[in-house]
């Protein structure tokens, strides 16, 4: 296939930061694969909680954008063309991966080949698109504050979500005693992931159950973050992904760390294979069509999810 900059494609983008109406489906130029890149025909893309924060400019220091900008941070699809120097894949290979920033909600995306892995044969594209960001970010955030040792107490906020669900499983594997917060409807699901203590945050304050915690993984932020300092041990830490201002909100003498995931293809390959083999649970909450991505981003902001939302581009 010959691709020129005059070809167009559909994409979900923002022209300015704002609320639900800021994300729109529009026609943009189709990219070409540059040096060391492959052009991916996107078949599915994960819808993440970070999307609405990018949309509203909440994390613009962490994700600086040149507007207008295409949203979306992870994808699964098929290699359509190879750029100069790209040697890891062949045209027609099924691939998956994170972009390391926004840009996945487009029919074609030029991606540095080093960010991608081959999609396991036993995974369809929709399930594959749910994996790259959450599975790797959860693993990295769990280990970000230092080695995780058996017997430690770990509290996971937002345990039913994409990040939280993996984190519960990883922490349990490491031999930790896992405390987790979830809404009433999601308590049994989080328990099925291996959590030792699931706290229904709608009926109970987590401070009354979780004590002497060595590590808090905060995927919620806000008031939940501010209340979490009181449950830590003296040397405990909070690793947060939802509050970029966590350092400013960290009391004197405490350890609070802002975490951003980094691409790790070796880790992604291993985790994706475990998911394909059923060794790790990867939950899809909802599958939407391309045109429903803006609404799905907003629903992610307002409604607690079990696992991930994925956009199927064939719909």
Brief description of this entry?
The chain has helices at residues 49-56, 125-129, 132-144, 162-173, 187-192, 223-228, 265-276, 293-302; strands spanning 8-14, 23-29, 37-47, 69-70, 74-82, 94-98, 108-112, 117-118, 153-157, 177-182, 197-200, 213-218, 232-240, 255-258, 284-289, 308-312. It is of the alpha/beta class. α3 crosses α4 (162-173).
Explain the overall architecture:
The protein is α/β, with parallel strands linked by helices. The protein has eight helices and 16 strands. The strands form three sheets. Strands 3, 5, 6, 7, 8, 15 and 16 form a seven-stranded mixed beta sheet that branches. Helix 8 links the parallel strand 15 (284-289) and strand 16. Helix 3 (132-144) packs across helix 4.
Beta fraction of the residues? 25-35%
Helix content: 10-25%
Number of helices: 8
Order of helices and strands: EEEHEEEEEHHEHEHEEHEEHEHE
Mean pLDDT: 92
Q: Report the uncertain regions.
A: 1-5
Total number of strands: 16
Q: What is the first-to-last residue Cα distance? A: 23 Å
Q: Major beta sheet, specifics?
A: 7 strands, mixed
* C-alpha geometry: globular
Structural class: alpha/beta
Radius of gyration: 19 Å
